[in-house]
Specification:
This protein is mainly beta. 10% of the residues lie in helices and 59% in strands. A hairpin with a 6-residue loop joins strand 5 and strand 6.
């Protein structure tokens, strides 16, 4: 995580050192951007529950791993200090690991998510020459797809396992900056948080029938992005 923050900070300083003349974004301007987004997942979930046999052992938990993906989006400046923004990206796949008494099991599942987020942003005046900070509040919708159990997950569960996650609506917030090279090109960096919670259900087919386990995952993601923007 420290490495990712250092990369973002270094890129921002490099941009500041080589700026050409720039001006504030005009009302009615649309900006599209493309870059990298690192999703720092700080998941928290109670122990798995619901099995009719010895599994889950008390304290059997899961955690969701981090991921980096390509992010892109669109910003429309509808007032002097206000804009609307739609944040998108290539759906990342996250590895799911055992935790608690399953700490040493390793990867037990994979889940892919699609998390479009809409913001209303407030833009401040320049903090430094050509550096324009902003803050935003919005709403996130996270759609989970292509969840699957690994061979290890099947072995721990006692047979072939299917995993289901409910989709999530939640509040989102971010802070960021735009370094404007000229009226068209800019470097945009953000740090965002979204309230993402999902009910997880795993169904395992065993020799004696089906076993269903449940938990509720609070993903608590922080997303750090750095993108190149083009305004028109």
């Amino acid at each position: 995580m420290k490495k990712n923050i250092s990369i973002l900070a270094g890129a921002a300083l490099l941009a500041l050192s080589g700026l050409a003349s720039a001006q504030e974004t005009a009302v009615g301007t649309t900006t599209v951007y493309l870059g990298l987004a690192h999703i720092d997942v700080n998941s928290k979930a109670p122990a798995l529950s619901g099995g009719s046999k010895s599994f889950p052992d008390p304290g059997a938990k899961i955690r969701v791993g981090d991921q980096t993906t390509t992010g892109f989006g669109l910003v429309y400046r509808f007032a002097e200090n206000w804009s609307g923004e739609l944040v998108l990206g290539i759906p990342p796949s996250h590895k799911v690991y055992g935790s608690g008494v399953l700490q040493n099991v390793g990867q037990i599942a994979v889940v892919r998510q699609m998390p479009p987020t809409a913001f209303v942003n407030y833009h401040f005046g320049p903090l430094l020459p050509k550096l324009y900070p902003f803050v935003g509040l919005g709403v996130n919708y996270t759609y989970f797809e292509k969840t699957r159990s690994t061979a290890t997950g099947n072995a721990v569960s006692g047979g072939p396992t299917k995993i289901y996650l409910t989709n999530s609506w939640g509040a989102a917030a971010h802070v960021g900056f735009a370094v404007r090279y000229n009226e068209h090109w800019s470097l945009v960096g953000t740090a965002a948080y979204a309230d993402v919670k999902s009910n997880m259900r795993s169904v395992t087919t065993t020799n004696d029938g089906e076993e269903t386990l449940r938990t509720r995952i609070n993903f608590r993601p922080m997303v750090y992005s750095l993108s190149l923007g083009y305004s028109f």
